[in-house]
Amino acid sequence: MKFLFDVFPVIIFFLTFKWGESHPILAQSYVAQYLSELVSGGVVAAEIAPTLLATAVTVLASVVQIGYLLLKRKKVDAMLWISFITIMVFGGATIYFHSESFIKWKPTVLYWCYATAFFLAQFVFQKNLIRTAMESQIKLPEQLWSRLSLVWIGYFIAMGFANLFVAFNFPTSVWANFKLISIVAITPAFIVVQSLFLSKYIEEVK
User: Least CB-packed of 3, 24, 100, 167 within 10 Å?
Assistant: First the structure.
């Protein structure tokens, strides 16, 4: 349930974009009606309207997401704050400059922010974020915790480059598909493979 809550804005972006892609004139009409004052020049072409509409809805979804947690006085994870800030900045730039480039850069910036956070935590502050998150569930040697942290750093860096490759070499529709798949399939698959490795290792040390 928490996973679905965390990826809620991504799912909203995908669904809204796909709807707008199928109804470009309606999407352009909604953008003109609700976002014209936020768009530089006030005029949006039909071909980019689905992206702007999806971005605006995602920004709103992110605000609702954070607002809900704050109202319920629940802890907002650091990664969720990073995601919120990046969608506000890059989503806002996408709408104002009516350019898809900004929102396409957003996942890469987010991935690289995660990689930087993991790197700084481990090598500057001597704090392993993976260990902090998982130590209550499993016990591993210090060396393995360090390796896991490096693996996640490498994963975030690789996913950042993968996003840029898809975003700027394929149509926006393909990138939207990849964006969703990377969240609901690739990352969970990576975690499953990691869990299998850890299970085997734990059995060996026992």
Answer: 3
